[in-house]
Amino acid sequence: MKIAVAVDGSEQSLRATEYALMLVEHFPKAHLEIIYVTDFNKVEDERLLKQSPNSLSLYQKKQIHPVMELVKNEGREAEITLLLGNPEQRIIKHVNANEIDHLVLSSRGLNALQKLVLGSVSQKVIKNVNCSVTVVK
């Protein structure tokens, strides 16, 4: 069984990771994968990240560091997948192409107007992946 958790560096994604770790504990043969997507539209130093692969790598490692510390503190191992681009599109494509059995996402708690205007990554992912999904608030 392959369980993936998509993280974004937020406190909510730490809770999603905790939930994924609990699932892995209940399924001893399960493999855990951490997915992080760098969205250039939301990165402040976009030019710097695009110019230097080292800067991009350092930025990504900084974003997933708390998640990996949590995994390590639980005595677990996880595969790390770092992607670039639109988060919902990249998550959907990766999950469907890599036979993920279960995906864990966090919800940012957008209100109804924000969802209407901005959309919701978790809503778009849920509709388009070919596996079961748990959304953690």
What does this protein structure show overall?
The structure is a single chain. The chain is built from six helices and five strands; from the N terminus they run βαβααβαβααβ. The two termini are about 25 Å apart.
- Rough outline: globular
Major pleated sheet? 5 strands, parallel
Distance between the termini: 24 Å
Q: How many DSSP helices?
A: 6
Which structural class do you get from the secondary structure elements?
Answer: alpha/beta
Task: List key phrases describing it.
alpha/beta, 137 residues
Write the layout of secondary structure elements.
Elements: E1 2-7, H1 11-26, E2 31-38, H2 46-51, H3 53-73, E3 79-84, H4 87-97, E4 102-106, H5 112-118, H6 121-128, E5 132-136
Parallel strand pairs: 1-2, 1-4, 2-3, 4-5
Helix pairs in contact: 1-3, 4-6
State the gist of this model:
The protein is an alpha/beta fold and 137 residues long. It has helices at residues 11-26, 46-51, 53-73, 87-97, 112-118, 121-128, and strands at 2-7, 31-38, 79-84, 102-106, 132-136. The chain has a 5-stranded parallel β-sheet, sandwiched between helices.
